[in-house]
Specification:
Elements lengths: L2 H17 L6 H9 L7 H12 L6 H15 L11 H5 L7 H12 L14 H14 L6 H16 L3 H11 L3 H24 L1
Helix pairs in contact: 1-2, 1-7, 3-10, 7-8, 8-10, 9-10
Length: 201
């Protein structure tokens, strides 16, 4: 991977992590709108779709509408259409199961201490955030190889086993086109990244 590709990879993982954290912020959505992808591939097409879904003034009313929909989709009330935790999909719909513990162990191996608070370590935003941390490590020559290898393992063992189900739930349940498109770019980028990392290993 070229230096530019490593930088863009970091930016996209960082943005995706922020886009799954409540509340959505204008500066995050604006950064997504302005992001360019050098390659003409499936990620670029998915990115164009999510940017097209943001083709509106990002005023207070639009942000409020998106944040209300985000809450409905990923927190409830009532039945949560797109549960954002690995354990839900991999542990019989029970939260804080072995997938959460395994993700936490992986974070700690890299010196990343999960935030103390109400978000379990297998939340989509934290898993993407950890991948953005690893992507940042790849910018240092002495850590690049280990960080790329760890990214591949984390994607294969922790994120990809449940990401397609989560993204499908988000796509089928979203009332705002933005969230369906966000699911599409998340799934496509993770799959593409695994493919590229596999070629390097």
């Amino acid at each position: 991977m070229t230096g530019d590709m490593l930088e863009t990879r970091l930016i996209l993982y960082r943005l995706l992590a922020a886009l799954y954290r409540y509340p959505l912020r204008e500066e995050t959505l604006e950064a997504l709108r302005l992001l360019s992808w050098e390659q003409d591939d499936a990620v670029a097409e998915a990115l164009r779709q999510v940017q097209s879904a943001l083709d509106m003034p990002l005023n207070e009313a639009a942000l409020e509408r998106l944040n209300v929909e985000m809450t409905r989709l990923m927190e409830g009330p009532g039945v949560t259409p797109a549960v954002p935790y690995a354990s839900y999909y991999l542990n019989g719909q029970q939260l804080m199961g072995p997938p959460a513990q395994a993700a936490r162990r992986f974070y700690l191996e890299w010196g990343v201490v999960p935030e103390q608070g109400t978000i379990p370590p297998d939340h989509i935003a934290l898993e993407l955030g950890f991948l953005s941390f690893l992507a940042e490590q790849t910018l240092a020559d002495d850590k690049r190889e280990d960080a790329l290898r760890a990214s591949l393992v984390f994607l294969r063992e922790h994120l990809l086993p449940w990401l397609p189900q989560f993204c499908a739930a988000l796509e089928t349940s979203a009332r705002e086109p933005f969230f369906g498109a966000l699911a599409g770019v998340t799934r496509q980028f993770a799959a593409d990244d695994v493919g590229q990392l596999s070629e390097l290993s």
